[in-house]
Write a structure and sequence with these properties.
By secondary structure, the chain is of the alpha/beta class. It folds into three domains: about 5-110; about 130-200 and about 325-485, Rossmann fold, CATH 3.40.50.300; about 205-310 and about 555-575, no CATH class. It contains 16 helices and 18 strands. It has helices at about 105-110, 135-140, 155-170, 210-215, 225-245, 270-285, 290-305, 310-315, 325-330, 355-370, 400-410, 430-435, 445-455, 460, 520-530, 570-575; strands spanning about 5-10, 15-20, 35-40, 45-55, 65-80, 85, 100, 120-125, 130-135, 145, 175-180, 190-195, 340-345, 380, 415-420, 440, 475-480, 485-490. Strand 8 (about 120-125) and strand 9 (about 130-135) form a beta hairpin.
């Protein structure tokens, strides 16, 4: 007799098993503990189930049983020459059916790869000889999330998953938002690393809400100034278009308003034209208090334009050039040129514009997929996702949440897949996480995080969540479409060169035992100052690849009707030199 129990009740997808006394079993080595897979022998199939609780209360009146266990029915193995596993149960067990611990061969049948589109992520916690595979197509096309508290191996797990995805799909493009600058060395020469020092993201690619967030440093905009911007930005775009499309013989001009651009149309314009338009309107005003509003707006634009931290946005702001194709090709690796992955290091960006930058990147990733009909799939991985798509609508930047949510809801139709990574799932927008059909849950101690996770998984897997607070490092519960069954597994070891490491570690720092000298302090100050100044990009092949920007020289304007003043009129400028009261 190899069984250690008998079915004593069945209710829907749940069953109860009576555990036999040791004297009734052929071996005393069976340990029926919570979390173990078991098999129930039925007439036409073998049902795979998991023990969710064990108790000695309310036992049936029999000396044969010493305890009872509740089990979830997860799927069944159909017999034949080539046994096959399928989710769900078509033939339910009957009272008295024998219960055994699942064998190694049955586990291999359950977790056997069904095709070449499977990646090896680790081993089962119950049997380390059985490899845990994840279906890449199901995981990507229906989005996935990696959840876990700090220090449980979450970043290492993300590195493992993405490296395995690159092996399985070398042509899939991946864009990773690296909040803490820790993934730069994890993917070797397959990834392009971008940061404020080598990124070119022209300001005119920002839509109206995003550029307002930049100009007002994350604070709400002044309504009067916003009205002015909403009026002059489309005109500045129209003026720039006329520069490029003017008839060289007749210099025929048209009204900028007739071109039909909106504040959100992604076409170039020059800051000098924008300021000139504002200046022109200010000059027509006689009311001093009204003119002050225009002056404040000009000063605000000039302040941001001259801030060295914003060079990645405003470099060549007055020269122009439609570099949108080059920027998108560079950011999203089209063509990949052997580097299908982009790592966007966010730690060096000014804190005031990080949300706006993320919003632009998410929005462009989705829009390119939309207008290209999804012919070139992209995986967009968002680290610390709760920062950009918070559950509280009063926290964070609305357009960023909207952009991430749009990828979650509609991205799969256009080949834009989403990977979320967060340590606080309770603070993440529930609508967004509900779109992730594959979840990798690592240790979570917070009750609110566990409650959200419980609402996101199916009833059949809900009992597994009781293990979440006690998971060890690198241990993970995997749920959803990408795995054969809700599974407790252990991520495999990651090679040293693929381990995430924060770049805040300074190579010149001596050991603690040796003490810190002036070289250490100088290295710290160099990094410190580098975060607030623009430095030339080092000759590093990892970050040296730039888009070949087309810069167009401004064409002289002969037509009087289009000749904006390129500076402030001296009579009006005298007003600005006086102290404002």
């Amino acid at each position: 007799m190899t069984s250690f129990g008998r079915v004593i009740s069945v209710r829907g997808s749940l069953a109860r098993v009576g555990l036999l006394a040791v004297s009734q079993m052929a071996t005393s080595e069976v340990r029926a503990t919570v979390g173990r897979f078991i098999s129930i022998r039925c007439a036409t199939s073998t049902i795979v189930a998991m023990i969710t609780d064990v108790t000695c209360e309310d036992l049936p009146s029999s000396d044969n049983y010493i305890a009872s266990a509740g089990v979830d029915l997860l799927g069944e193995i159909l017999g034949g020459d080539r046994p096959k596993f399928q989710r769900g149960v078509t033939n339910y067990p009957t009272i008295g059916d024998a219960v055994e611990l699942i064998t190694n061969q049955e586990l291999r049948t359950v977790y056997a790869p069904t095709g070449s589109d499977q990646i090896n992520v680790g081993t089962l916690q119950q049997d380390r000889s059985v490899i845990a595979y994840v279906d890449v197509e199901e995981m990507l096309s229906k989005h996935f999330a990696v959840l876990g508290s700090t220090g449980v191996g979450k970043s290492t797990g993300v590195s493992l998953l993405l490296n395995e995805i690159l092996k399985s799909r070398p042509n899939l493009r991946i864009f990773l938002l690296d909040v803490h600058n820790e993934y730069g060395r994890c993917f070797g020469d397959r990834a392009l690393v971008l940061n404020p020092r080598n990124l070119k993201l022209p300001f005119w690619l920002f839509n109206f809400e995003e550029i307002v967030d930049v100009l007002f440093a994350g604070r709400p905009g002044v309504p009067e100034e916003l009205d002015i911007l909403a009026e002059v930005i489309p005109m500045a775009k129209g003026i720039y278009t006329q520069y490029q499309n003017a008839d060289r013989v007749g210099l025929k001009r048209i009204d900028p308003k007739a071109i039909g651009y909106t504040v959100d149309t992604p076409v170039p314009y020059r800051l000098v034209d924008l300021i000139s338009l504002i200046d022109e309107r200010m000059g027509k005003l006689e009311n001093r208090s009204s003119r002050i509003i225009y002056h404040k707006l000009i000063s605000r634009i000039e302040t941001v334009r001259n801030d060295p931290r914003y060079t990645f946005m405003f470099d060549n702001a007055n020269v122009g050039g439609d570099t949108m194709a080059e920027v998108i090709s560079h950011l999203f690796r089209l063509p990949a040129n052997g580097r299908p992955m982009t790592i966007m290091q966010l730690a060096g960006f000014p804190a005031e514009v990080v949300d706006s930058v993320v919003s632009v990147l998410c929005r462009m990733a989705f829009d390119f997929g939309l207008w290209s009909d999804g012919v070139s799939p992209l995986l967009f991985v968002c680290e610390e996702a709760h920062r950009y798509a918070a559950a509280d609508r009063n926290i964070g930047f609305g357009p960023t949440r909207k952009a991430v949510s749009r990828i979650a809801k509609e991205g799969r139709k256009y080949g834009v897949y989403l990977g979320l990574v967060t340590q606080r799932p309770a603070e993440l927008d529930a609508t967004i996480i509900s779109q992730c059909n594959t979840l990798f849950a690592m240790r979570l101690a917070n009750d609110r995080d566990q409650a959200l996770l419980r609402s996101a998984v199916s009833d059949a897997a809900a009992n597994l969540l009781s293990f979440v607070p006690s998971l060890g490092t690198r241990e993970v519960l995997a749920f959803g479409e990408g795995v054969a069954l809700p599974t407790r597994l252990r991520f495999k070891e990651v090679p040293i060169h693929q381990l995430p490491r924060s770049e805040a570690t300074i190579a010149t720092a001596p050991s603690v035992a040796a003490g810190h000298d002036m070289h250490f302090v100088s290295a710290v100050l160099d990094r410190w100052r580098g975060a607030t100044s623009h430095r030339d990009v080092p000759n590093d092949p990892m970050i040296n690849e730039r888009p070949a920007a087309r810069t167009l020289e401004p064409r002289p304007i002969e037509a009087p009707m289009l000749q904006p003043s390129l500076g402030l009129d001296p009579d009006r400028f005298s007003l600005l030199k006086k102290p404002l009261r």
